[in-house]
Task: structure prediction
Amino acid sequence: MSVIYDVVLPILFIVALGFVFRRLGGRYERAFSRTQLYILVPALLFTVVSGAAADLRTIGTVLLYVAILSAVLIGITQGLGFLAGSRRAERNAITLAGVFTNSGFYGIPVCMLAFGEAGLIWASVYVIASSTIQSTVGVFVASAGRRRAVDAFASVFKVPLIWALVAGKGLAALGALP
Result:
């Protein structure tokens, strides 16, 4: 019965929530996506990186994997866009669609079901790593489509995920969290 509560219901809740928002005509999609960007994902990141279960080596390994994968995909998509004769804004749009997927949150409870607590930790760390890359490199690529590189780089620091990472690891290092 625990599997139903811990794994199946969270997935069904997210699917039902998406269905309800779509039925309401998309009026609340922006509010929901902003809530996810500014509150939910930073809270997940803070919880996982500040906890003892996810050590810095695990986080670093997964982050390195996601960063390398993203760099390779960025190179491929930018190269294909260049070969197709696309302008910078179009190449960056192609890159955003080809590199940054909307994946992960459904997989967390499934990984917990399949692999137990260790699966939950690895899946959470993967979501955090991919969200970190999306919230830094993705924000830069999206901003650099029509802005100067300096301005695009500055926009990265407006995303709260980076600050949640710093705060979580900082507080854990100080021993300020249980």
About this structure: DSSP finds seven helices and no strands in the chain. The chain has a mean pLDDT of 78. The longest helix spans residues 107-144. Residues 100 and 134 are 6 Å apart (CA to CA).
